[in-house]
Amino acid sequence: MELLENREKPIGVFDSGVGGLTVMREIMRQLPDEKIVYFGDTARVPYGSKSRETVVRYSEQIVRFLQTQQVKAIVVACNTASAYALEALEEKTELPIIDVVKPGAKTAVETTKNGRVGVIGTEGTVGSGIYSSYIHQIDPKVQVTGKACPLFVPLVEEGLWEDPVTDEIASRYLAELIDIGIDTLVLGCTHYPLIRKTVGKIMGEGVTLVNPAYETAVELKELLSQQGLLSPGAPALGENRYRFYVSDAAEKFKRFANSIIKYGILSAKTIPIEEY
Amino acid sequence: MELLENREKPIGVFDSGVGGLTVMREIMRQLPDEKIVYFGDTARVPYGSKSRETVVRYSEQIVRFLQTQQVKAIVVACNTASAYALEALEEKTELPIIDVVKPGAKTAVETTKNGRVGVIGTEGTVGSGIYSSYIHQIDPKVQVTGKACPLFVPLVEEGLWEDPVTDEIASRYLAELIDIGIDTLVLGCTHYPLIRKTVGKIMGEGVTLVNPAYETAVELKELLSQQGLLSPGAPALGENRYRFYVSDAAEKFKRFANSIIKYGILSAKTIPIEEY
Questions:
Q1: B231-234 contact pairs (CB < 8 A, 24+)
Q2: Residue B122 in contact with residue B46, Cβ under 8 Å?
Q3: Which of B151, B153, B248 sits opposite A54 (nearest CB)?
Q4: Minimal-distance CA residue of chain A relative to B41
Q5: Contact A51/B150, CB-based, under 8 Å?
Q6: What sign does the dihedral A146-A148-A154-A159 (CA atoms) show?
Q7: How far apart are CA B77 and CA B12, in angstroms?
């Protein structure tokens, strides 16, 4: 009975804001029977330009909140939080935790043929060297080049997913990765799948884009399966399958979220995350 | 003796991050004998896309911090905080408080000849209608048109102060203000003076740009003078004239700050603002 109860609990997914919804979307696709509690830290977004200490403190508060929601596993659906806070979070909770960086790193190694991998992300993620570190644990010979792209998130949030301005900015950011001759590029920020067409066009057909959101959902499914935690079936009709919490501006979150996950998010509840 | 002590106290200036340094720069120019304590809320920046409740809570914490620094007056060097939090702050402290919106509004009314004024700023500032409200208190006949420009702050922080991309984005944002035929444009966000060349070029010679940072320093000088609070003279040699505090990433703040205020900021101290 105890086991069944655990299986029926929701998965907790969190991000600094809306970007993690691209990860949630993949989990919804690959694990349609699972309940999900999503938290977006919209009062303190973005994390990408903030320090390790601050991102760790914020992430710990969020995990404490998700634990009050009786989640059975936690997905750190934010590359910056994964880069800075994963170890600290693993020390603080016994729940299974999945991050977005390890799955992306693993797929990058499996994908590259010429041994040259690029990683684009926030200043925090790229500066941390975390992708490089995980990739080298698997294969020390792979050459990893990181490039921070601070304007991508604001461009995505402004809706310029396909636009000459985004083309121009992307051309500048990506030029050195093209020069190096990478054949694999990790979209190391949860916003970036939304501009993958633009990035793909600029990098050209010879470069494979790795979307950690997809790989994370695959890994989550394996983990839940191994631990006997997969949902025993679809939630009952009328049950609240997906719940959304934010730390600020729930209405604005709802609008953007509905443009990403096409689920018809009816409500997002604001909670005082600083108190957790 | 008590009065002299008050006059010798520093002025407290705060912003969500680095933008308020354009206001501090004006105060340094116009009031070179004053000591200043600057606080930038870099752990929670930006404010422009966040809700009123959150911006009020953050601003109140900062004012409590500045009070521990024995300031004699407070400058809200952030348009969003001015728009949302000024009233709440005035209720919480007896110190004189100056915001950046009122001085900008006043100057806009004095400047316009055709009675058509534009205001550009963050979503928060523009959505609040605060400039319009202050302008109409002075002259109800002035027609005010606001336009949120969410990409300007990231473009400025990426260093693209003069760049074809910034030109293109500015052309899009400003098109409707040109169509309306405004003759006065308020730079309603503290980052915008850094791209005033770009904005001026697109708006053309017939449009006067109002920089609230400048007007705020003028008003501050008047206020301090009226209340007998002007500094009695330059701080002694070796005294710490300007002190900088942030809530996160002090090193990064220092680099950007030095590009704005050319003072040679030697240190910025990180404090836990959530605890105030």
A1: B231/B7, B231/B8, B231/B31, B231/B33, B231/B34, B231/B35, B232/B4, B232/B7, B232/B8, B233/B33, B234/B32, B234/B33
A2: yes
A3: B248
A4: A44
A5: no
A6: negative
A7: 10
Q: From the candidates A248, A270, A276, which should be mutated to test the interface with B, based on the most B CB atoms within 10 A?
A: A248
| A154 vs B53, B150, B274: nearest CB | B150
Instruction: Identify any residues that bridge with A231 across adjacent strands, giving them in sequence order.
Output: none
Q: Which of B44, B51, B158 sits opposite A150 (nearest CB)?
A: B158
Cis peptide before A10 (omega within 30 of 0): no
| Minimum Cα–Cα distance from A42: chain B residue | B50
Residue of A nearest to B151 (CA): A154
The continuous run of DSSP H or E covering B156 comes out as: helix B152-157
Report chain A residues touching chain B, CB-CB < 8 A.
42-44, 49-51, 53-54, 150-151, 153-155, 157-158, 164-165, 168-169, 247-249, 252, 274
User: Of A43, A45, A51, which Cα lies nearest the Cα of A20?
Assistant: A45
Matching residue, tokens 């030095």? B258
Cβ–Cβ under 8 Å, residues A140 and A212: no
Question: CA B252 → CA A151, B5, B106, B213, B258, distances in Å?
Answer: 17, 34, 35, 23, 10
Query: What averages of pLDDT result for each successive group of 10 residues across chain B (276 residues)?
Result: 76 96 96 96 94 96 97 97 96 96 97 98 95 97 98 94 97 98 97 96 97 96 96 80 94 88 83 94
Q: For tokens 């009062």, what's the residue?
A: A43
Task: Quote the tokens at residue B164.
Answer: 């074809």
Catalytic positions of B, please? 78, 189
Global ipTM: 0.90
Share of chain A above pLDDT 70, in %: 98
